[in-house]
Design goal:
The chain has 187 residues and is mostly helical. It is 80% helix and 0% strand. The chain contains six helices and no strands. The longest helix is centred in the first third of the chain and has 35 residues, at 24-58. The model has no long low-confidence stretch (mean pLDDT 83).
């Protein structure tokens, strides 16, 4: 067993011993981060919607208060699972932990505000389904949270952080533009 392997790596290695599952090993290797983010994202959604529905439907708590309370549990679950298993190339140490917790919570607070607005507008103003709006809002929140976590919170130390990411994105756009220009000239 390799020292850097986690329980998911060991599970995939065990499953892919079987001939009919060997196709999954390269898929897992290439998309591990996205697969684990999706798995723990599903757990976060279950915690968020489950606790929200208990608070609103059974305890009679107002939708915005219930959403804020469910956000706390879902955010803590997401932070610890993302830090431990999803974004593994982040900085280590106590100071880094608290910086990541702070920036993660700040990023999640931004999406909480978005989700609160969606709930208020679509449920209170337009009178849409309470749980339906919460479910749709979770899709928007998950996509936004992935971007925030990947780019701002758990950025790796070896890739240069935000500035390097912006440079890589800019270089990709330039390369794409140049390739398109070459194709136009060839036609």
């Amino acid at each position: 067993m390799r020292n850097h392997d986690d329980c998911f790596d060991r599970f995939v290695r065990w499953v892919t011993k079987y001939r009919y599952m060997r196709w999954f090993a390269p898929v897992y290797a290439r998309f591990k981060e996205m697969l684990l983010y999706s798995l723990f994202g599903l757990g976060t959604v279950i915690i968020s919607i489950g606790s929200y529905s208990v608070f609103t439907e059974y305890l009679g708590i107002h939708i915005l208060q219930a959403n804020a309370i469910s956000w706390i549990g879902a955010t803590l679950f997401a932070f610890f699972t993302n830090r431990k298993w999803v974004f593994t190339s982040h900085r280590k140490g106590a100071l880094a932990f608290f910086q990541q917790l702070g920036s993660f919570s700040f990023g999640r607070a931004l999406t909480l505000a978005l989700e609160e607005w969606m709930l208020y507008y679509f449920v209170s103003v337009l009178e849409f389904s309470n749980i339906g709006v919460k479910s749709v809002a979770q899709i928007v929140v998950i996509a936004t949270n992935y971007f925030i976590s990947k780019v701002l919170v758990f950025r790796g130390t070896g890739r240069g952080g935000r500035a390097a990411l912006l440079i890589r994105l800019h270089d990709r756009r330039i390369n794409r533009f140049l390739n398109q220009q070459e194709e136009v000239e060839l036609d």
